[in-house]
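so my prof wants the structure for this chain in the tokens format not the other one, which i didnt know existed until like an hour ago. anyway here's the sequence
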Amino acid sequence: MASSYLFAGGGTGGHLYPGIAVARAIARRDPDARIAFLTTDRPLDHDLLEREGFAQVPQPVRPFSPKPWHWPRFWLAWRSAIELAGEVIRNDRPRAVLGLGGYAAAPPVVAAHRAGVATAILNQDAKPGRANRYLAKYARLIALQWEASRTHFAPGAPCQALGCPIRSDFASPNAAAARARLGLDAARPLLLATGASQGARTINEALLQVWPAFAAQNPAWQLLHLTGPADEERIRAAYRAAGVLRSATEAASSGSVVVLGYAHDMADCLAAADAVIARAGASTLAELTALGKPGVLFPYPYLKDRHQDFNADVLVAAGAAIRIDDARDAAQNAGPLRAALERLSDEKTRGAMSAAARALGRIDAADAIADWMMRQPG
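here's what i got, hopefully its the right format
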């Protein structure tokens, strides 16, 4: 009988994409493997997994609320999710269950532990979230992105710094082809700015203020600005008015900026870049470090736990990135951003930061975690 593997989590791409990377690694080794994801019931989970071709089992689980009047609904959903996960585990008899973080990971990991099935959890952020702190006692492996996270778990916890799983296309991106396709110069240094799939308006506005003057004083540089779909046309028009826009289809264009709302080939875009402006999400930093890219990091300022601050600090401490606290105001962000770009304009500085980033990166994280899952006796 083909081996079965279960992945638990969802609700965001940040939870699902690392699991998908591990599932792909298992499928490459064992094309007959049966793989399923126990997820939230959000449409995002269905859409991502349908595109990947992996089976999905939506759970009735809900996030915990500190408000007592929400507890009855939470516990009813929890009990239903535990029962569902237990039924899936009895039917599939998986070799291992991997928790991907977040509240949807909890019921399958707990149910697997009770059934004697090997369990592991991914801890991608520097500071563990509530779900991973709870699940640590049920896991045979806690796969850390960074060694610095170990101090947040109990002494003796089964932690291993294996990295954050990223897609296999980051192992061999084609930087030259990406530059040619985007109408970018093959020889000029390239700054990539991205706010993840939806963009980051505060980054967009600050860069819009800074770039025209920076480019005038540093004419060798070019910029690929991934704005997010909502800001694409507005930011493109502003760069055009400033006289710095370059057509993505005209390699001879004199401008220094190419604007895209979204890029499907992020591996190529990152590989083509000499430096990157980004948020400090765990998967983003895994990609930056795997490819050895110096970063200017704006940790996301709108979450109560500010977990991206801790992520950014890991890279800053290693000398791989510059952190800018997002003031949520373009004028306040512009000064620190300009100073960061001036630092990165020095080739020796970029080289040192690149080496520091690469020392943190683990391009083989998905394979390492897949190997662990496939070694379990089942």
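also thought this was worth mentioning. The chain has two domains: 4-166+364-375, 170-360.
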